[in-house]
Amino acid sequence: MASTGKIELGGKTSVGIYGIENSELKNFGSILLTNTATDSASVGMMTDGKKLENDGIITMSGGASAGMIGKDGATIKNNAAGTITIQGEKSAAIYTENSTPSNAGTINIEGKESSGIFAKILIIRTILSKIQEQ
For the whole model, what pTM was predicted? Predict the structure, then answer.
């Protein structure tokens, strides 16, 4: 499935694109979390054990949030055309558990105590581009 439009998340604990089973999800559009609460806990794209790719723009304004989350053997890619901006505190652009993250695009970190890539039980990590702290 590919998203080319605009997804806006206004609530807490929201997910813009979520994939299960044999999902291969791609974002070419924009995903925007507008909720700025410090405990927003929302996600732009998420999958359990499948594949996510970002070639668009993901902006997470709230705290305790993530641009992309992959668990249980997922493959998570922020491709060269992709940009993830984290504005909230204690958040991550890419968060993985027992999965494979990679970044060839741009990651902007604006919030305190946030990370570009947070990997818990890392399988493989490929970083081909820069991560910027602002």
Answer: 0.89
